[in-house]
Each structure stands twice: as structure tokens, then as C-alpha cells.
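Changelog note: in this version the structure field was regenerated for every chain. One regenerated record is shown below for reference.
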Amino acid sequence: MAIKYTTFETKMGWIGIAGTEKGIIRTTLPLPNKESVLKVFIELHEPDIDFSAISYFSDAVDMFTRYFNGQKVNFSLPIDFSGYTDFQIAVWEITKTIPYGELRSYKWVAQSIGNPKSARAVGHALALNPIPIIVPCHRVIASDGDLRGFSGGLELKERLIQLEKGIK
């Protein structure tokens, strides 16, 4: 199945989206420039790629743009989780249900998927989240309120939380 790609700039930085006919397979967190996004995709996929699929992802680009402008967005986009474990998919699916501007703990996610002792494994699954923002892993924090790990760094995690609270 062919993979389509696009890159675009938002108020917080450059975003990349990759997808198949089944749905989105990968997004990047905001990066400082287009070249950084291209590097991520080239490392993950074949080196000869076409980034001209902006029209294919027009709804997603619009949603991301509105999100980074501080608007509440419900990312109702098709997602292709092919190749991931049932556990990872369960973690990501329940994480998608965390409301905009709200936070939940790793323990809450573990309990919500029926595996209450798996908070550490939940953290690992969220670290591998291929579609951040759409699966809002930044909304998951430690039970004690600490932010803890985030693939984009804790500063970005805090910025996303504050963006959703309306504090820019």
C-alpha cells in the first residue's frame, strides 16, 4: 500500500503527516523546520518519497492548524494502526478519549484498558505513539501530577497542556 506524505507549518513549528488509504500512520510533533520533518520520515520509510499529498490530508492539516491556533479540535480522522500490538492499540484508543484540556494518569489508562498493574507498560506504549496530538499522549501524566516522559521533551508537553488550557 502506497504511503503519502505532507509537511506544513503551524504556529508551534513544522508538522508532518504520513498515511495510507486506510488512514494516518504517522504524525510528527512540532519541529523547527521542514528539513527536520523530512529527516524523520526518510529515516522511517523509503528514501524516495513524495511529499506532495497536501490535498490528501487537507482535513488533517486544517485540524492541526486550528489546534495550534488554540482552538478545541476533535481529531476525527481515519487511523491505520496496522503492525502494532493489541496492547499498544488499546492504550492509544483509550488515550484518544481523554477530553481536550484534561489530564489523566498512566494508572488511569492502565485501569481503563483492564490492566491496572500495567502503568509502566502504558508509558512505554505512549512513548511509541506514532500519531502524537491525534492520540494526545501529552495529556497523560504521573499519578502524583508530575509530567514525566514525553518524546518531544517535557517543555513541549507543558506547552501543549497550556495551549489546551488557553494559556499561550
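Spot check on this record: Residues 6 and 97 are 26 Å apart (CA to CA). Residues 34-44 form the longest helix (11 residues).
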